[in-house]
Design goal:
By secondary structure, the chain is an alpha/beta fold. It has 21 helices and 16 strands. It has helices spanning 17-23, 35-50, 61-64, 67-70, 81-91, 103-107, 110-117, 128-144, 190-197, 220-231, 255-266, 273-284, 290-297, 304-308, 317-323, 339-348, 351-354, 361-364, 371-381, 395-403, 434-440; strands at 11-15, 55-58, 78-79, 96-99, 121-122, 146-147, 150-151, 163-164, 168-171, 180-185, 240-243, 330-335, 357-360, 388-392, 407-411, 424-425. The strands form 4 sheets. A 6-stranded parallel β-sheet has the order 13-12-11-14-15-16. A 4-stranded mixed β-sheet has the order 1-10-2-3. Strands 5-4-9-8 form a 4-stranded mixed β-sheet, with helices on one face. Helix 2 runs parallel beside helix 19 (371-381) and helix 11 packs across helix 12.
Amino acid sequence: TSLPHPTPPMTIESLVMHETRGYRARPGDGDAAWARYDGAFRDALLRLEAAGCDFAVIANNTSHTRLQAITRGVRLPVVSILDEAAEAARLTGARKALVLGTEVTMRAADYAVLLRARGIEPNERLPDASIEELQALIDREVHAGCTPAGPACSTSAPAMPAIATRRSCCWPAPSCRSPFRIMATPRLSKRKASDSSTRRRHTCGPRCRPRWASARSDPPHAVADRQERAMTRVRRSRPVLVLDAMGVLYETGDDVGELLVPFAVRHGSTAAGEEIRQAYLAASYGQIDASSFWERIGVEPAREDDYLAGHRVSPGVGALLDGAGAVFDSVCCLSNDVAAWSLKLRRRHGLDRAIPRWFVSGEIGLRKPDPGIYRHMRVHLGGPASGFLFVDDRVANLDAARRLGLHTLLYDPAGKSEPGDHPRIGRLEELLDSAIVARATSRRSRR
């Protein structure tokens, strides 16, 4: 059997199914509950972006119910198989559709919305008992996979999961053991990729090898090495200084506990402290905007500027930023914050002029110490991990950065934190001492 035509060059990120399944939350849970699941796919997309790919396709239905969250902060275009499958069904002339898949896919309305927009009536949501039965069937077949005696399942599952007839169409559950794959190509237009994907077949045999997976596919370590080389093309003679915001650029490290909760209580909020913290987390992930946050905790959104007025710039910030050009290649900020607040604060204090690049959790959809937020920064700035010096007031954030190969410094003006494996400074002006910077960046890089 010949390979499908055209067969484009691809970079393949293969995610482990039992891990991503373990990260899944329950249908209807909020974004915070899905953060690890979203992050696994987002990290893969960022690696493909760093490898120079032009677009990506995720060959998995469940992840498409989270596509908006997964692609936060990712510039690489992602082709939606939901859109493409619904369009393929329309082209068959189908008038009705039956959607089958994981419990997440069947409980979500994504396919129903797209099908109705194309004049195709989807089935009513199946009873919970039927959904659970189908999920159990998927689990049995997926985990049984291909046995030495032959395939445990015999149904063919296309990568673009649509089987269409003139009057109806059906999206089947996956039927053989295969990791979820995120595929991207640097040399094929989006339209051609969609056309070729509808012709791919996934046949289950003793090796359970998708036909689009070329025998020349690189092993995972080779792909990772190539992706790392893509990120390290930028070479600098001096390190990039990466500064945390709360606790480094601004005096208050625990801005929620020390500033936000007391402010909310003073201005009439009846929400408990933990409720305020959870609402803040949602806003700092970009799941709700600033106005929705204030409404959720029962404070007038017009009070926002009064709250932000309580943030003060740390001593030594001005001197550091004035002299940083003599020691560092550039300066950027990596912050867990609500996007609108971060923008207002840096404009209020004139920091946006001295720090041109800001990587804020509310815009990216990731928070430190999630490894994805550090990779996101590297993808956008380029350069080896060892070319960055990250300064934060929280050891957990520094630990995560160091594991990824970044150099680290703990900013601890009060001298109360246990620094762990990180050099400590007590004044920001110490960063202008080239000897201190040289010692902090002389450790052997882990990457």
